[in-house]
Amino acid sequence: MQKKRIAIFASGTGSNAVNLIRFFREDAQVEVAFVLSNKAEAKVLSSAKELGVATLHFDNAQVADGNFLVQLCQEHQVDWVVLAGYLRLIPAELIQAFDRKMINLHPSLLPNYGGKGMHGRNVHEAVIANGESKSGITIHFVNEEFDKGEIIAQFHCKLTSEDTVESLEGKIRYLEQTYLPTVVRGAILNQ
Ligand code: GRF
Questions:
Q1: Is the shortest distance between the CB of 105 and ligand 1 below 6 Å?
Q2: Would residue 78 count as lying in a domain?
Q3: In whole numbers, what is the pLDDT of the chain averaged over residues?
Q4: Which of 27, 91, 126, 189 stands the most exposed, by the fewest C-beta atoms within 10 Å?
Q5: What is the atom index within ligand 1 of the atom nearest the CA of 18?
Q6: Percent of the chain beyond pLDDT 70?
Q7: Which domain holds residue 78?
Q8: Is 140 designated active site?
Q9: Angle made by CA atoms 17, 3, 39, in degrees to the nearest 5
Q10: How many A from CA of 36 to the centre of ligand 1?
């Protein structure tokens, strides 16, 4: 059987992209086709390259072109797209082409702390400012409604009054590193 091929989209550091690359390196059924970033200088591109994965950079105008992205994914025989810290809007054409085959990682317990402007540190600052007793991560399918696609899995962490934005960030990273690869693999192989 042909391996299922994943395209990873990322804009920043890429700790999740790297974790996915390492996880799928030895997998018999799933492989990473390439890592795409809209930021030429993003650390994720150099890290992926070091791990021997193809990397692609396109500017913001190019990644806003849905037909271009659909064609790119077809050329690379991509079956699934995983958004791991990708900060650009996904064009409708790509969402339609990867209906229930595009997964996003969000650093909160959606529907809480989702939507416009709610990414990365902004999420953690809002969670701490509101004195929440828990937070977590959401792994979900991507549809046309921002941060509202069907939830595949959520994982929680507890918070106390001692927690800071930094400590919350650490807890979220731990959940992401622990669970994202296996949840992605499960979603792909269950379909
Ligand atoms: C992660 O917290 C992810 O949940 C969010 O952006 C962050 C990306 O981190 N969507 P990294 O680039 O994978 O290190």
A1: yes
A2: yes
A3: 96
A4: 189
A5: 13
A6: 100
A7: 4-111+138-154+180-189
A8: no
A9: 25
A10: 14
